[in-house]
């Protein structure tokens, strides 16, 4: 029996909050953050992804993050793997399985090679060693690996254990169109939601990203299903200036964490090096964006 | 006497329309396009920029583009130089001067070196050989050259012939903040307007870009001056989904030209190789965006 | 009738010497340099290539370089095109034809797209507009375009006007093997000769590069034909430390020009920005290498 | 008391041999390989470096590699850290300390940021958490981080726990000159020895690399000390064609492992994905190079 495809909808990519000068993992903030996600109504959560700063956590910290999330919410969980090579990815997935058991909805594995055979063997090996369903993340900015969407589609099509694709190789809308047409599993947009309307139009199953207002992602995806472009656009417009502000190269993570902090969802907004801090010159504009964003109803 | 700084406001970056299977320069469409810009009320035009596909035009075609624009409108003109080295840049500026005379408001020259002395000598040599005011374009994606905003500011500060900066090294808002604080000349955002609100908040003098609805850029910049963030945001919201759609990596030029074509501003939307064509899968969404965008009043 | 393939052997890539603080083209040095090449016995010369700093010359300077070379030696000439787009490449080739007439053995055009159809159309258009034989240069470091060797081979195979390939996409030996097997025209190695032995073993027709001792390239290629690996290696060993010294990233051009200067082949070793100068810390070692290199017999 | 600087000389970067279709770590081959290094007379070994494929090993495999090496030879050991962020680097160093105790001569940590303060804080945190001496590896091709040599020198100069630098940011000879002049610790060249003569001339303390004939590296470094350039060149010439052959972009690791296999030092030459395999077209030339290389005396 093959692993079940992910549910379409909005999957929140969970930031890892830190506290103090040592930037220790702040489990209290983390719990508060994922509770907010659950209350807001997300389909599931993605933990230890790129924007969860997984690459800057040690094994014990990763375990603590997984435990906190699992203990706090009942949502299905996707867990990111940081490595590109097979053996350490398997080790990462096993850690997730050890902590989460059948709460693990999928292991998110990066596209590690442009060569279809190499990529296929890698994904197969991870699945065979762990039994986990695989969410394939195509994110060249992080992996350093670029593959054409049609080649990726042909590579993944015969792999029954692939449970979703996270399409983050810009331009994403045509990539989503190619992947959704070829594959029977959901394809999610990411990248902070900057292309959300266009990815939905191209057939995406929703968004898997960490935009600081998941309420906006949810409103837009729900509206798309119910009324198509016009209504989704209506719901989404008010968030778009903040989306663009947040999704700035190199500083996106720091900006997002500061938004989460100002919303009261985490206590401090520090990021671990080598991630960049938020320039002070952006603070006033961040506040303007937050003041203008639609106020979610019935949440908090 | 030093050349005068550019006027703040919106400078339209003019696309070069082509026609037929040979993709010949379509001067009729070009004239119609710049007439539209003038009627819409832009401060000036930027011709032969990156998105004017200057790098794919030969000398005779560049001359024809300059002549057509100069003959059609009365706006001040910035002309882009494609090369990175001094001697060919001087040759390009001289061509512009030959055709435009004192219509040339500035020669746009790329940041060609991260070394302050080398860059400074380059800009100085171009100015001394031509007398032209220099618009410095910081666009690493095209030039391959990255320089920190504070280093660029210190390099340009002592150069009295610099008449503007076009800041296109993301993240642009903190770069605009650094540059405007250090320099006495206007700093413009570009990149299709994707960061327009945040660049204005950081002190930019406006936008110099080729977004297919200059009316939107104009409305936003005008509103910013009159009412600040809130009113500018209000004016800008309706254009933002199209801005993001248009500003897609690699295909931005093709998408923009198709928008211009669907607006009736140019006859054909072909781009010259090696620029990429617009994926057919995006066409329906392009039409949805165009139907939803605010309809400019009193234009066309 | 199709243009004739290039002769196999050694094609010298000619540096453009400059003089004085203005770095004016030094035609006297240029003449001396190409005379040396002719006396040394090269098969032909490549002028206005990347290491001829063509991208930093204006049209008049390019014309002067071509005239000087044509007036000084009787060798067949390949002329490089700097642009990536079709129209300006055609303009560059026409300039070469205007000056050289049937002395032009081939126009060297860069691989401008990884898409076989786009590349094929580009090369075809340049040939059809000019009638020139095309030397295809695959040099991703300069063009920014990467294409797999087998894809390049399939793209070029049906094009009867391609007269040679310059393979400079490392690792070059397997690329040369793939290209020579598929194509009926000579494939040359470049990159300063750093992989010369291995490219010859893979089937290359020789070297097209600007190493400061063409005598070494000639001795090695001649020995390879006569005695294979062992004798070629014997001839080449003494030059190899200088080859590696010269072929240093970013500073290769400056190092090479200083070698040419110390040999007395050019008067000054200045390079035009944005090319980097030679670090002073390398000067003593440069002299050691020059003192140890085999002394060419019967030349100078 | 600060950790002692590394001994100058040749440090062998140890490949990790694999066997069978599963590419399991082959501890027998690994033992044979490091015994060879010890017999050849290297100063020390670098284990779990980039060319030890550390990034493709899981924790258990890394431990096994460290144990095998420690059990087989008495040499001082440098151990590479794969991560760029502080917490996981500390975890990696602790694993090395747990297995090696005071056999650990230094933990090799990558330059993780171009920002002097961020890099300095990173290195300091790793040292303070572990007490380990730090070998700083400047290898932009792998880390994605570029920093100017003079900035790196100024950053490292005040850090008393830095025990060596591995300079692998080309062009390396001027970088070595800058670093050795500023720092009181040895600076080693790497990159397969391609710039060995020039790095020694610039003041390097030797080589830290995995060239398949450490005998050559040793002979060259020894000769440099005794007789300077001339004698070192004499010893090195015969190896240089193989050095260049081995140091080919992307396939260097696979070529090197095949050389080690043909020498009888490891049983199989497989590499783990996403590392690339050796093209079959290179095999004959590899054999020619091996047959021509100077035959080490008294070893095997």
How does this model look, in words?
The structure is a homotetramer of 300-residue chains. The first copy, chain A, is an alpha/beta fold and 300 residues long. Helix content of chain A is 46%, strand content 14%. The first copy, chain A, has 13 helices and ten strands. Chain A has helices spanning 27-40, 59-72, 86-100, 116-130, 140-143, 149-156, 172-182, 196-201, 214-227, 229-237, 240-246, 252-262, 283-292, and strands at residues 9-13, 18-19, 24-25, 44-47, 77-80, 104-110, 134-138, 162-167, 187-189, 206-209. Chain A has an eight-stranded parallel beta barrel with strand order 1-4-5-6-7-8-9-10, surrounded by six helices. In chain A, a hairpin with a 4-residue loop joins strand 2 and strand 3. In chain A, helix 4 crosses helix 6 (149-156). The longest helix of chain A is centred in the N-terminal third of the chain and has 15 residues, at 86-100. Chain A is globular and about 50 Å long. The mean pLDDT of chain A is 96. Chains in contact: A-B, A-D, B-C, C-D. The interface between A and B is medium-sized, with 33 and 33 residues.
């Amino acid at each position: 029996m093959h692993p079940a495809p992910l549910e379409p909808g909005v999957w929140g990519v969970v930031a890892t909050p830190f506290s103090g000068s040592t930037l220790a993992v702040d489990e209290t903030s983390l719990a508060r953050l994922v509770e907010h996600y659950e209350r807001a109504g997300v389909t599931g959560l993605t933990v230890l992804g790129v924007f969860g700063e997984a690459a800057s956590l040690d094994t014990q910290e990763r375990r603590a993050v997984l435990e906190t999330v699992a203990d706090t919410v009942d949502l299905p969980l996707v867990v990111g793997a940081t490595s590109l090579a097979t053996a350490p990815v398997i080790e990462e997935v096993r850690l997730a399985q050890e902590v989460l058991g059948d709460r693990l909805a999928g292991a998110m594995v990066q596209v590690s090679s442009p060569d279809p055979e190499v990529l296929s063997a890698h994904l197969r090996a991870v699945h065979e060693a762990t039994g986990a369903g695989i969410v394939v993340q195509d994110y060249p900015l992080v992996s350093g690996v670029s593959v054409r969407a049609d080649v990726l589609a042909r590579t993944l099509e015969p792999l029954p254990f692939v449970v979703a694709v996270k399409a983050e190789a810009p331009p994403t809308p045509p990539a989503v169109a190619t992947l959704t047409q070829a594959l029977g599993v959901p394809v999610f947009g990411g990248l902070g939601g900057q292309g959300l309307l266009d990815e939905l139009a191209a057939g995406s199953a929703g968004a898997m990203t960490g935009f600081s207002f998941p309420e906006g992602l949810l409103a837009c995806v729900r509206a798309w299903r119910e009324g198509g472009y016009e209504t989704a656009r209506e719901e989404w417009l008010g968030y778009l200036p903040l989306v663009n502000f947040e999704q700035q190269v190199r500083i996106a993570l720091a900006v997002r964490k500061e938004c989460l902090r100002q919303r009261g969802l985490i206590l401090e907004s520090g990021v671990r090096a080598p991630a960049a801090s938020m320039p002070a010159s952006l603070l006033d504009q961040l506040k303007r964006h937050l003041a203008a964003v639609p106020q979610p109803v019935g949440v908090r």
